[in-house]
Amino acid sequence: MVFDFDIAIISRVFVFLLPSFLNPATATQSTHSQQITDPKTDLVLARCQYLNTCDFWWTSRRPVSLPTTTSEFDGIVTPVIEPVFSKVTEDVPGAEGPVFDKKGDFYVVAPGVENEGKPAGEILRIDLNTGKKTVICKPKVDDFGGIPAGCQCDRENNQLFVADMRLGLLIVQTDGSFEQIAKKDADDRVMQGCNDCAFDYRGDLWITAPAGDIAPAKYTRSMQEKFGSVYCFTTDGEMIRIDTGYQFPNGIAVQHMNDGRPRKLIVAETPTKKLWSYDIKGPGKVENKKVWGNIPGTHEGGADGMDFDEDNNLLVANWGSSHIEVFGSDGGEPKLRIRCPFAKPSNLQFKPQSKTVFVTEHDSNSVWKFEWQRNGKKQFSETMSSFGQL
């Protein structure tokens, strides 16, 4: 029997073997990746802290969805699970931006494609049954090729909004045609190169922009200098820069209230291993910036793409760590880690109305999938049009 391990109510898990089955000398050992079950009995006794306010105990035969190891960083012990990953396709240079359109077709971007040493990024459609890749668009503006890095699908027109590190924000039709949205923001500043984007349920698109000015300016990016920005492209067609001074802003997500109103904007700052949040007050209007979450590890890399499940748990690709971090709705430290069969997960996306998560990665530039414990949160493209009036 497989039990659903409800991580939505667990903030810390400390795992012990029953004393009768343990060697006392090893009972208190803390290792980086420590087995927590006795192979003879497969019996787990876990002490869990319920929403940081009360404790409860549970015992069961170990189901496949329970943590099988733990990981420790800065004195914080976090359970780790190892779901089965299946490879969907490979050889997508710089694989990023997984997204489904309204018809259920699946797309990724290949920002690493070059032509004679110059950017020539691609947007591809992937057949999930065969893994076959079809290039639908190779964006190019005034002889400058693109570096597409993130995608979202809109609700009304089934078109892809693509964050491009060289060209800014693009709208790409599923037939391959495209247009560049804005060369300047609402304050007449040249747009910066964009990396990722996320719709809220009103239809406003929130965008990270870690690169320097878009083409024809010289391409610049840095993991050390703090010139990254965050934008909002509103339903009124305004491109509003809401903040700047980031050290490579990367993944981005919107947390919604139960009634569908956008609540918080979450922004990943990769080198600092920080997740920042803002309270959303309206289209392009935010306040109360603060650290929302901390990414574990001392590796080169950090938070990349992310997506919410239906219980507002945030799954975050931790590039360079071999893990996807799972945060509760209030952030803080990860309450669960998902071990991947690759070191550099770059982004992730739930298949609509399912528990299947599609993950891009930079070790073999492949796309993988695994089953999570609950469905993903609805994307903007899946919502009813009434949300657009919120």
TrEMBL record:
Q: Which UniProt keywords apply?
A: Hydrolase, Signal
What Gene3D superfamilies does this protein map onto? TolB, C-terminal domain
Q: Which GO terms describe its molecular function?
A: hydrolase activity
Pfam families the record matches: SGL
Please identify the protein, giving its name as recorded: Diisopropyl-fluorophosphatase
User: Where does the UniProt annotation place the signal sequence?
Assistant: 1-27
Domain SMP-30/Gluconolactonase/LRE-like region span(s) in chain numbering = 96-361
| Species of origin | Acanthosepion pharaonis
Keyword Coiled coil among record annotations:
no
